[in-house]
Amino acid sequence: MPRRPERGKRPTLADVAERAGVSAMTVSRVVSGNYPVAPPTRAKVLRAMKDLDYVVNAHARSLAATTTKTVAFVVDDVTGPFFALIARGVEHQASSEGRLCLLCTTHGDPERELAVVELMREQRAEAVILVGGAWDTATYAERTAAFARALEKSGSRLVLCGRPAPEEGLPVSTVEYDNEGAAYAMTSHLLANGHRRIAYVGRAVGLSTTDERVAGYRRAHADHAVGFDPSLVRAGEFTRESGTALTEALVEERPDVTAVFAATDMVAAGVLAALRRRGVRVPEDVSVAGFDDIPLASDLTPALTTVHVPHEQLGREAVRLALHRGPGAEDRVMLGTHIVIRDSVAPPRAAVVP
Amino acid sequence: MPRRPERGKRPTLADVAERAGVSAMTVSRVVSGNYPVAPPTRAKVLRAMKDLDYVVNAHARSLAATTTKTVAFVVDDVTGPFFALIARGVEHQASSEGRLCLLCTTHGDPERELAVVELMREQRAEAVILVGGAWDTATYAERTAAFARALEKSGSRLVLCGRPAPEEGLPVSTVEYDNEGAAYAMTSHLLANGHRRIAYVGRAVGLSTTDERVAGYRRAHADHAVGFDPSLVRAGEFTRESGTALTEALVEERPDVTAVFAATDMVAAGVLAALRRRGVRVPEDVSVAGFDDIPLASDLTPALTTVHVPHEQLGREAVRLALHRGPGAEDRVMLGTHIVIRDSVAPPRAAVVP
DNA sequence: AGCATCACAGATAGCGGTATCTATAGAAGA
DNA sequence: TCTTCTATAGATACCGCTATCTGTGATGCT
């Protein structure tokens, strides 16, 4: 009695082989197409495959061939436009390189990140892309380094996207953009407009990205010979709500502030909402600048002056770096940013523009 | 000479077993924890695992155990807030059920969707979740049906999220929300405000979701004894740009329109931008309503009156339905929507509110 | 003491592919 | 004509894990 795939079971190479009257090996060759098979034989096999609706078993294949054609990427939250844009870049590049995407979220929880990277190791992903800022703690840096080494040992590759490598000589690829420079440029823009009391709002303490941004903010102040006032740096989250709350407090405590540099566009949206609620006009009374240039930025009222970050390219580069490695291949890319001037920044009312 | 994992190769069960001085089977039992192992033995094994930094091979496991612990979801574009929110729901539920997420995008291309579903079949995903509206063509319906049957045959499950099942008796689960009812409610709201010439903007021709929405729009007109004017339904894409372009044309051709019902909030953002550019005030001159209630909606100026769609729940239900199937388990869920009234709708200037 | 019962650990056989070697025709060359 | 290729297909041995069966001391019971 001919062996036929029972219901609920998928046909295997052997099933196809039997139906086509050839060996399993021949079918395998037709499927992967990396070995000459005589046209008539190939036709028979293709026919049998179609008849049985055969699909290869990716797990069996990666077990035998030790290559998974899979890249994993780990983000805080898919919902954030920042991550979504990078995700799009990753997905694009991955699929154009014939890879599948594994998606995991950490909700900003370092513990979950640990679990998730472990999961990716189980999956033998070719690359694991960690997106977003890193926590500036020694243990976190140590753990990232451990990830990198563990993945390397497994023949996989860690890619840090939008965060710096924790130490030199680690087997990681990094794709970054110039946070410090961007923050410097935007702060300079505000200073050049005559602002002297500029609040930086939405700083998540101890996150690499913001630390760099604050550094740029400070350097700009120094270069313009404006004293740095620590009380103008307001810690919070990267959310709209945080922007609102921080702004409420800021307006209350520091009515002398004439400009707000929000850590992200999302925070800026919250800032604008809070100011509007309080009857503060933007940019007449207070200027507001953002960071990211997410699609929403130009839809805010007033349209947001912000820093453009090439998110999608960030994602694409991450995959490219991970997949094309070899002698002479780069393993570190720094992408440029630039400020986008819209309508939310203007000189302060009583400004003495230099 | 003791067999040790060579560099570049990951340790296997056998390596751990050898180091712990037990059999591979015992190690397997410790790892999966579904069989009693004497505490001292377990300790030895755990020690060896830690020493070697052992990680199971998910592919080998799913090959042997014939269960992949993976759900796949297929969206048009991760960047769209609509999809991102659903994705979040999917990811949440999946990870809380111990499943991994495979992400694929189709860019609205039915051909790519075909390829992608094939890929998911190769991966033996436990469930494949198709997100977003379906094309209303016979061949598309036929193909969806084919997907459903093929996946069912492989012991997997197709879940349609936000689109109806193409035919009865198909092995699919569906999670929908009431497009027709929501559009009816919103149109009624506009009509009740006194609007009589309401444009529906951003209709992608032949997409199930919009067809349903247009149906609700028409039913509301009928119930309010207002004639349906086909020239007020403007076809386009679900993008901000499309909203802008369609509005430009609309204002030009139909200056008598007093309200615009945008197909999505994203389109509404474009509509608002176009109206603002033309100096048309919202809601004083023209009212605008959206659909989706994405986070951006409340940040628009004026804050957008829109239909709230429970995206995240949609995603969660999709996973739940796919994973918990059995006698008596539901395989179809319809989630409710409701309109969210903000500031973008008001009676028309010369309105005679009934 | 004598035997059934446990609780645990090992042996074995695949899961569904691919790498690699071997076998067998027919074509080509001497 | 006989050997040597070359093109094609088959056989075999894993990849790393789990299901399932078998073995064996220690325990409980009469």
TrEMBL record, chains A, B:
It comes from Glycomyces harbinensis. It comes from the Bacteria. This is LacI family transcriptional regulator. Transmembrane segments: none annotated. Keywords: DNA-binding, Transcription, Transcription regulation. Residues 11-65 form the HTH lacI-type domain. Pfam families: LacI, Peripla_BP_3. One of its GO terms (molecular function) is transcription cis-regulatory region binding. SUPFAM superfamilies: lambda repressor-like DNA-binding domains, Periplasmic binding protein-like I.
